[in-house]
Amino acid sequence: MNIDDFKASFIGRTSQYIDTILNTSLNDPVLLRIAIRRCRLDCAEAERRIAKLKEDNKEYVPKTDYMALQQTYDELIKSSEQLKQHFRNAKVEYNTLKDALEHLIQDRDKYFTLCENYRATLTPRPKWERCASVVERWDELSIGKTSNERVDILLNEIIGGNDIYNNLVHFIGLGVDSTVPTFLQTTANIRNRHFMQRDVLLLIEDIWKEKIEYDGQRATEEAPKSVLADFVHIYFKRRFPDDETLQLEWGYNLVASCRRFKTSPDIDLFWSVLTGKISEEVHHQKQLLPNESK
Predict the structure, then answer these.
(1) pLDDT in tens, the chain (294 residues)
(2) Contact of 212 with 259, CB cutoff 8 Å
(3) 41 found inside a domain
(4) pTM of the predicted protein model
């Protein structure tokens, strides 16, 4: 080997060639110095080339990263297509619902106009729920009824026609047991006379009047006051002395009417005293109140 072989670059040479050059230069200081200088130049050139390669390839990625990114990209493309299809379906459904909404708005406006016209021209419907505070079992009686039928119910209430007893032709006798009031003791069927509220009020007023006179007579004899239930029996015997059937009919009809017209304060008070729920003195105190206020 001559000196020109050491001046040429080692870059691109085989490792066997480089080993041969270096082994030859070890025995010659001049050649060794030239070989070292050559190695330094080749090292600098290699560093320059490496730097250039890095600069030229800085925007490139490794193949494994590229494949992973490609797979992610494909999945995103597939997901994007699915979302686009969902969007198209949603858009079609949206347009359908939008059309339906427009029709509903048109119908609403039409019916609102009709409602306003009817409100201005037709008679307003009554507030039937207010009847519940006056008519007992109003909800039960009025459910599913038309306005005309509800008017009939109110008229029947005025004449006492909505009670279950008013639809009976006969009352069934309660028997002759000692627990049954005397004026109701019978086993026969009793005719329903369908008393009206005004008739019941007049009858109750007369019973109270007669009882006060009767108790006044008993007071002169130093006898205790009579119980209202017992006096009712006496009252009907006095009124119909020769007809026990009439006595029973009026007794049963009085009881049924008290139950039917208990929304009336006077009838309810009479019924409460008759059944022993309150004292008779409540009635007398109530009668004194108007006189005291005068």
Answers:
(1) 555 555 566 666 777 776 776 676 667 677 777 777 878 888 888 889 888 888 888 787 788 888 999 999 999 999 999 999 999 999 999 999 999 999 999 999 999 998 888 877 776 677 777 877 766 667 777 788 788 777 877 776 665 555 555 556 788 888 998 889 888 999 999 988 888 888 899 999 999 999 999 988 888 888 888 899 999 999 999 999 989 999 999 999 999 888 888 778 899 999 999 998 999 888 888 887 755 443
(2) no
(3) yes
(4) 0.47
Alpha-carbon span 255 to 249, nearest angstrom: 10
Given 124, 150, 175, the domain boundary residue is 124
Residues 260, 163 contacting (CB under 8 angstroms): yes
Is residue 151 one of the residues assigned to a domain? no
* Rounded CA Rg of the chain: 58
One domain for residues 78 and 171: no
The total number of structural domains in the chain stands at 3
- Residue 254 forms part of a structural domain: yes
CA angle 127/128/133 to nearest 5° reads 105
Q: Is residue 261 part of a domain?
A: yes
Residue 27 domain boundaries = 3-56
